[in-house]
Amino acid sequence: MSRSPRIAFLASTAANAQQALATLVERHGQCRPEEAEILCALGGDGFMLQTLHRHGGLGKPVYGMKLGTVGFLMNHYHEDDLLERLAAAEPTTLRPLEMVAQTESGTSIGSLAYNEVSLLRQTRQAAHIRIGLNGQTRLDELICDGVMVATPAGSTAYNFSAHGPILPLGSNTIALTPIAAFRPRRWRGAILKADTEVRFEVLDPYKRPVSVTADSHETRDVVEVVIRESETRTVTLLFDPEHNLEERILSEQFVV
Question: Where found in the cell (predicted)?
Answer without folding.
Answer: Cytoplasm
